[in-house]
Amino acid sequence: MRLKDKVAIVTGGAVGIGREMSVAMANEGADIVVIDVAGNMDEVSSAVKAAGRKCLTIKADISKRAEIQAAVDKAIAELGKIDILVNNAAIYPFAPFLECTDEIWNKTVEVGLFGTFVCSQIAAREMVKKGYGKIINIASTQGILGIPLTAAYTAVKGAVIALTREMATELSPAGINVNCIAPGLTLTEHAKSAMPPEVMAFMGQAVPIKRLADPKDYNGIIVFLASDDSKYATGATFCVDGGIGSTMLPGLPPG
């Protein structure tokens, strides 16, 4: 097992991509701390425990420093340490640029960017003490491309990619690897409820692999970055998006 007896914190780990990443790391031997605003985290807890690992679930708002400090303190008190932090939590509002309100903008930044900063800073202070840690930021291909109707989210994810590089520069000498995953559009329950089916179908055909991502498609990369297999990788952004962020023309026929 590549993560045997490691302790991983996953923000937004109750559902969607975060849930799958939590279970994937548990299957590789990690105990999991799920931090989420969701009221019911029984399902992810059961899945982690079914893998034979401990699961601590904490309801907390990642944009509130005091709540995250309390969550990290509780994790250390109960599980003894923090080896891995996955900054997955974010909000994904849809609004045309000309109609994006200050409230939408500020809340998106508060959760997706400030929350990533706060969680990373608090966790890194603990990791520095033992000279080891893995911080994995979940950005998006939207932080690289211009996608309509998501100005705030796109700006936040671009900033998370930049923050990853800065954090790696400062923290890597202390034994902390900091990397970033940029997923493509993923068939989470939120995405399916927020976007019309015809839009989802169109987007799927625009991907060179010819489908949208399943939340499980990131299991391999999260385990790699959380493990010592990636010990010489830091400051990098790994696009796992079916190729849409790296190609100019989608779906040309072979031959």
Record the SSE blueprint.
Elements: E1 7-11, H1 16-27, E2 31-36, H2 42-50, E3 55-59, H3 65-79, E4 84-87, H4 102-130, E5 133-138, H5 151-171, E6 176-183, H6 189-194, H7 197-206, H8 219-226, E7 237-240
Parallel strand pairs: 1-2, 1-4, 2-3, 4-5, 5-6, 6-7
Helix pairs in contact: 1-2, 1-8, 3-4, 4-5
In words, what does this structure look like?
Strands 3-2-1-4-5-6-7 form a 7-stranded parallel beta sheet, sandwiched between helices. The chain has one domain (7-240): 3-Layer(aba) Sandwich (Rossmann fold). It has 255 residues and is of the alpha/beta class. The chain is globular, with a radius of gyration of 18 Å. Helix 1 crosses helix 8 (219-226). It is built from 8 helices and 7 strands; from the N terminus they run βαβαβαβαβαβαααβ. It is 43% helix and 15% strand.
Short description:
The chain is α/β, with parallel strands linked by helices and 255 residues long. The chain has a single domain, classed as NAD(P)-binding Rossmann-like Domain (Rossmann fold, 3-Layer(aba) Sandwich).
